[in-house]
Amino acid sequence: MNILAWNIKVGQNKDGSYPLPKTENLDRIVDIIKDSKVSIACLQEVDAYTLRSGIKIHQASYIANKLRSITGKLWNYEYIVSRKMKPGYYGNAILSYYPMTTILKIPLPRINSKEDRSFLLTKVYVENLPMYIGTFHLGLQGDQSFQAKTIKNVLKDYKFFNKRIILGGDLNDKEGSNTYYIMLNQCFPMIDVGPLGICTFNCFHDNSNPKIDFFFIRGFANCNIKSSVLPIDISDHRPIRLSLQ
Questions:
Q1: CB–CB of 134/98 below 8 Å?
Q2: Could you tell me if 43 and 135 are in contact, meaning their C-beta atoms sit under 8 angstroms apart?
Q3: Phi and psi (nearest 5°) for 40?
Q4: C-beta separation of 41 from 2 below 8 A
Q5: Which of 119, 124, 138, 230 is the most exposed place for a label (fewest CB within 10 A)?
């Protein structure tokens, strides 16, 4: 099973401009998911029906429908709204060609930064084996730590610490930060499955920039786990590909 975590920057180019047509980068994302043999994708910064990205375009739906047409598999998606855009929405999505249902939609309110953020948790059945796949996009200006604690507390309160969990997303903080250690240790332990020390943010500008996108997992001790950062510069983030066997 291969899983992708990627902040897609609402389909924009790495410099914040849009391609023409505005779906061009979405089509490239579809090709990357297909070519990387990904079966589940955790996406952040996903627009739905906004003026900036296309009033008729729900980006998660567009990607899922395109994947269905080119792979012949019934791709599903779940979406959470982080922010209302007037019109439309901005949020996170999980796509899967395995059966999937939403379990939790948790708003992550801001304290210091300008935007609310969110956490989405789904239940996915991989060959009848249930596991929980979540995606997150944390804030800035110190909100990361508060929001990370919220995620781990919710997972503890709902007793997901005894389940197979994979959380992939944009931490907006680097390895070794307080936010990072909260995700690893708050309430119950999780594992950062790497790759360690490899840039995921603005890598096209400076490859020594930090890694701020992560997979945190629990309950897969008997699996062979590999991860890699894909050298793709569509948005200002590079995707992480996680493989479990």
A1: no
A2: yes
A3: -140, 135
A4: no
A5: 230
pLDDT class of 122 with cuts at 50, 70, 90: very high
AA identity, residue 70: I
Q: What is the spatial distance between Cα 92 and Cα 7, in angstroms, rounded to a whole number?
A: 9
The 8-class DSSP code of residue 169 comes to E
Residue with token string 């395109």: 66
What letters, b where the CB count within 10 A reaches 16 and e where it falls short, cover 134-159?
bbbbbbeeebbbbbbebbbebbeeee
Q: Which two tokens stand for residue 200?
A: 């995921």
Sequence-separated (6 or more) residues with CB below 8 Å from residue 118: 80, 81, 82, 91, 92, 105, 106, 107, 108, 136, 137
> 175: how many CB neighbours lie within 10 A of its CB?
16
User: Is residue 185 classed exposed, middle or buried when 0-12, 13-18 and 19+ CB atoms within 10 A define those classes?
Assistant: exposed
pLDDT tens digits for range 23-58: 999 999 999 999 999 999 999 999 999 999 999 999
Written as six digits, the tokens of 6 are: 């990627």
CA-CA distance, 192 to 30, in Å (whole number)? 26
Residue 243, pLDDT > 90, answer yes
